[in-house]
Specification:
Largest sheet: none
Order of helices and strands: HH
Strand content: under 5%
Radius of gyration: 23 Å
Helix content: over 70%
Distance between the termini: 9 Å
InterPro entries: TVIIS_effector_SACOL2603_fam (IPR021477)
Number of strands: 0
Protein name: TIGR04197 family type VII secretion effector
Shape: rod-shaped
Organism: Listeria immobilis
């Protein structure tokens, strides 16, 4: 009988790598923006507004990536479950 098997470990590695990427994005977004709050140069307010926009986009991207990680894990679990069910069905038919 041919074995039916999803590759749950590959999906887990993919989710792990996405998680690492998410952490790197968060760290890069937080650490690369330095606010100059002690001067009164007109451009500082515009820079602050731009920095806040970038931080919001980084956060939104990271949240989407976190959702994608959860989806990868969920789909992998579902495929693993379905594979087990099909294997049981085929083994029963033999």
């Amino acid at each position: 009988m041919t074995e039916i098997q999803s590759n749950f470990s590959a999906a887990a590695r993919c989710a792990e790598r996405l998680g690492q990427a998410s952490e790197k994005v968060a760290n890069a977004g937080a650490s690369s923006i330095v606010r100059a709050e002690k001067t009164s140069v007109l451009g500082n307010q515009e820079a602050l507004t731009t920095n806040q926009s970038v931080q919001a986009m980084v956060l939104q991207f990271q949240q989407g990536l976190t959702q994608d990680i959860a989806h990868v894990q969920s789909v992998a679990k579902e495929f693993d479950y379905q594979d087990a069910q099909l294997k049981h069905l085929f083994d029963f038919a033999d």
